[in-house]
Amino acid sequence: MRSVVLLLLGAQLAYAGTHSLKYFYTGVSRGIDFPEFTAVGMVDDGQFMYFDSNSMKAVPKTEWIRQNEGAAYWDRQTQGLIGTHQTFKNNIQIAMERFNQSKGVHTFQEMYGCEWDDQTGTTNGFRQEGYDGEDFLSLDLKEERWISSVQQGFPTVQKWNNDRANLEGRKHYFSTVCIEWLKKYLEYGKSSLQKTVSPQVSLLQKDPSSPVTCHATGFYPSGVTITWMKNGQDHHEDVDLGELLPNEDGTFQKTSTIRVTPDEWKKNEFSCVVEHQGKTVTETEDKIRTNNGESVSIGIIVGALAAVVLLIIIAVAGYVVYKKKQGFKPVSASDDGSNSSART
């Protein structure tokens, strides 16, 4: 009888490691049923604030920020983001002119923030901007210069690289101010941010000849790896790794799907290996779930291993937009400091 081994690996590393403060901004030209501008703030990949141009109001999304920051904080956030909304409208117009576009739906995107390793003290800052889902500008903090991979971004790069005072100000923000806010938010939310929830893991299959999906859900923090093994060896062929997605309760989910023929599946032992920072958890799965009621027996082996915590770029459904060919794509942004500037 064929068997599928499901491994769930964990470690006792509840709160240590790299923490992040990220902001995601998305500006959209008129023409679709979506706010012209949205902003999402995230700590350790969990959303804590939100703003859009329909409501024109920054609002808390966690209890810990609601309890620790009052009206003055939210007024300041709101006023700053109202200004950024106007800047993004201008940015889209300028970008359209540079790309020789007169119509159509377009997006302007920005992601910025900082990271702090609470064990080594190492810090890092980042800011990236995109237009219509493609790279437009990025800030190299080590070299203290802006970079663009497209000629339409060169005028902005030249202007901003000549403004040394602005570059020094941004370096100070990312290395000092942003880190201070990150530590403050971590202290605010330590009771919830320190929590570790291990994933629930299922093997899902539409029918016996369909691909098998390893689905991990309900875990926190977001760092997780899902890999496959074939007869005890790492297996990377015909594997599709899904995006990290948020659940409504603040936890996360992720999938990995393997495509093999029924004959190959029957003759070999395939394993889904899920690694997550947290406690060792014992699962009791004993079947591959199918849509037609059929099932395949599987064995479960639960182990303990120091998990490698990965930093994952997350997509927040409904708040962020990525434009890919005919579709849309997302953007990232920041806190009290690194506001966008119009391109001229």
UniProtKB/TrEMBL annotation:
KW Signal (keyword) present: yes
Residues that span the membrane, as ranges: 298-322
PROSITE patterns reported in the protein's UniProt record: IG_LIKE, IG_MHC
GO biological process: immune response
One Pfam family hit: C1-set
Coiled coil (residue ranges): none
Domain Ig-like: 199-289
SUPFAM superfamilies linked: Immunoglobulin (SSF48726), MHC antigen-recognition domain (SSF54452)
Signal peptide, first to last residue: 1-16
Keyword terms: Glycoprotein, Immunoglobulin domain, Membrane, Signal, Transmembrane, Transmembrane helix
GO CC terms in record: external side of plasma membrane; extracellular space
Stated family: Belongs to the MHC class I family.
UniProt-recorded name of the protein: MHC class I antigen
